[in-house]
Design a protein that fits this description.
Keywords: Glycerol metabolism, RNA-binding, Transcription, Transcription regulation. The chain has 7 helices and 8 strands. The chain is of the alpha/beta class.
Length: about 180
């Protein structure tokens, strides 16, 4: 398994994507990308020796079933997949991609439900949203033993520091000011 650490920049637009191509970041996360643009963007990223993680649930025009994910894997050459769906994470693992299970921590019921999914699917990483609750980052890590990525509502350097203090191994953010940390 790879070792995702530090800031993981999440791209929402082409301007930020272009900035990241010349950055020191090894990984780029694609959010809200159109399926028709994805293969080209991955190709450009690979030319610059970047590794690409995509949020499969947010790819416009992609159906998150077995056939859609199979297409994604074969046609884009991504390095990893992020999803809230256990079946998508299972397919990523089956195809030897980095598998990141995204969890929304809305309440105790959601937490317990998500922990059961994680136990069944066994992703490589868990991304917790919102990522600004260090206590929950620690609790999920202790319950699963898996590395935690904090994401969502990360707005300040202090939010990043608190996520790391809570035990996160990495932080995802689309705030390009925080990519410099």
């Amino acid at each position: 398994m790879c070792n995702l650490q530090g800031i993981l920049p999440a791209v929402r637009n082409l301007r930020d994507f272009e900035k990241l191509l010349t950055s020191k970041h090894e990984y780029i996360i694609f959010l809200e990308t159109r399926l028709s643009q994805l293969a080209g963007m991955v190709k450009y990223a690979k030319r610059e020796n970047k590794k690409v993680l995509i949020h499969a649930d947010l790819i416009q025009g992609l159906k998150g079933d077995e056939f859609g994910i199979e297409f994604l894997i074969r046609e884009t050459n991504v390095d990893g997949i992020i999803s809230t769906r256990g079946n998508v994470i299972s397919l990523a693992k089956k195809n030897n991609l980095i598998a990141i299970q995204r969890l929304f921590l809305l309440d105790s019921h959601a937490l317990n439900h998500n922990l059961k999914i994680v136990e069944n699917v066994k992703p490589d990483y868990i991304e917790i949203l919102p990522g600004i609750i260090p206590k929950m980052i620690k609790e999920v890590h202790e319950n699963t033993g898996l590395p935690i990525i904090a994401g969502g509502l990360i707005r300040t350097p202090e939010d990043v520091d608190n996520a790391f203090k809570g035990g996160a191994s990495a932080v995802t953010t689309s705030n390009n000011e925080l990519w410099k940390l």
